[in-house]
Amino acid sequence: MAICQRIACESDLSHDNRIADAAIALRLAASGGWDPAADMNRDNRITSLDALMILQAAAGAIAL
Ligand SMILES: [Ca+2]
Fold first, then answer.
1. Could you tell me which of 56, 59, 36 has the C-alpha nearest to residue 46?
2. Domain limits at 1?
């Protein structure tokens, strides 16, 4: 299940909160790791942009 779907159903990657999801995405970006659930913009890469999009969604600025 994509993270955008998880956010919509009030669940998340880390099962605690969405800020932690952004940290997970940043860790993946820094390590070159991959988790399709963290690929917010679906460009098949995990970058800081994916983490930013998670934070923006958490703040209600964007919908995923
Ligand atoms: Ca991405």
1. 36
2. 1-64
